[in-house]
């Protein structure tokens, strides 16, 4: 039985305004960069008053952060519903969920981990990832083959750093890697074993030599 009352017209209008502010801010940051835009730019583009902005948010950083946090909390809820912590190689599926989520929400992830955002936003995103990993570490059993134990906080911080850097590289650097390939390569690098036998063929990680040479020349 649904105990929640339907949203009133005022509540629906408030939610639409909040979403408009979020989407407008993201568009402007992608166009001009985080540091280059102001609250006035946001309200002008959205055709809203500054007072309306402050009803919903305190500052522009809160807008971007809210968008990321909402999406990532949705990802976490879906993951906890879909994944059984006792399933073999559950770590791989957790990585796959993150990369698929980033692929679907590429623009927002580029703001959080790429050059269009800000250092403060990136640090907040890394801290958030570390908390997510720490929760999963505490609630998932250690692999049976593990013969050592790392402090949980250390492991969570390490994973957050690795994943955030890989997300930045994957989304900002020209490459043809899919979310499945990124998850598989990350899993292999972290756990030194092959991922589950899905659609990922490890032999395909080494992409076209001409493309590899072109990327090398661009980096020199």
Summarize this, please?
The chain contains 10 helices and no strands. The chain has 220 residues and is an all-alpha fold.
Compute the number of helices: 10
Q: What is the C-alpha radius of gyration, as a whole number of Å?
A: 20 Å
Note the run of SSEs as H and E. Answer: HHHHHHHHHH
Domains, number: 2
Fold topology:
Blueprint: H1 9-32, H2 39-46, H3 50-56, H4 60-82, H5 90-104, H6 106-113, H7 119-139, H8 152-172, H9 179-191, H10 209-219
Helix pairs in contact: 1-2, 1-4, 4-6, 4-7, 5-9, 6-8, 7-8
Which terms summarize this structure?
single chain, 220 residues, mainly alpha, Arc Repressor Mutant, subunit A, Tetracycline Repressor, domain 2, 2 domains, 10 helices
Tell me what the structure shows.
The structure is a single chain. The chain is mainly α and 220 residues long. It has helices spanning 9-32, 39-46, 50-56, 60-82, 90-104, 106-113, 119-139, 152-172, 179-191, 209-219. It starts with 8 loop residues before the first helix and ends with a helix.
């Amino acid at each position: 039985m649904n105990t929640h009352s339907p949203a009133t017209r005022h509540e629906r209008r408030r939610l639409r305004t909040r979403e408009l502010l979020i989407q407008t801010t993201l568009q402007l940051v992608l166009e001009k960069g985080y540091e280059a835009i102001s609250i006035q730019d946001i309200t002008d583009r959205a055709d809203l008053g500054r007072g309306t902005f402050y009803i919903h948010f305190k500052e522009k950083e809160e807008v971007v952060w809210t968008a990321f946090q909402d999406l990532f909390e949705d990802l976490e809820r879906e993951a906890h519903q879909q994944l059984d912590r006792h399933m073999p190689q559950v770590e791989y599926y957790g990585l796959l969920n993150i990369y698929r989520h980033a692929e679907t929400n590429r623009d927002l992830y580029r703001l959080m981990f790429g050059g269009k955002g800000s250092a403060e936003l990136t640090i907040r995103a890394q801290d958030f990832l570390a908390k997510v990993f720490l929760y999963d570490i505490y609630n998932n059993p250690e692999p049976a083959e593990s013969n050592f134990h790392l402090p949980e906080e250390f492991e969570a911080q390490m994973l957050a750093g690795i994943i955030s850097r890989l997300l930045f590289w994957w989304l900002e650097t020209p490459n043809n890697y899919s979310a499945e390939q990124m998850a598989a390569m990350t899993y292999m690098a972290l756990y030194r074993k092959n991922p589950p036998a899905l659609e990922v063929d490890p032999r395909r990680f080494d992409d076209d030599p001409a493309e590899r040479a072109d990327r090398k020349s661009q980096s020199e």
